[in-house]
Amino acid sequence: MRKKNRQFIICFFFSILFSQQDVYRSVDDIKEEWSGYTSYQKEEMLSFSEFLFKEGYYERCLLTLFELTYKFSDDPIIPNINYHIARCYEEMGSYVLAQRYYQKVIDTEPTTSFVRKAANYRFSHVFLLMGNETALINYVENSEDPYLVTFKGYAHLKKQNWEEARTSFIFAQSIFNHEHYNQLMTPIFKIIEDVGDLPMHNKYLVFLSGSMIPGGGQFLLKESQAGQGVFISVGMMLLINSWIDSQSLLGAKRFSESEGNSIPIYKNFKSINSSRVLHNKDQIPSFLKMNRSKLKFVIPPALVATSLYISSSLQSFFNTKKKNEELIQFYLFEELKRYSASRFLDFPEPVLKLSE
Question: Is the pLDDT of residue 34 over 50?
Answer without folding.
Answer: no
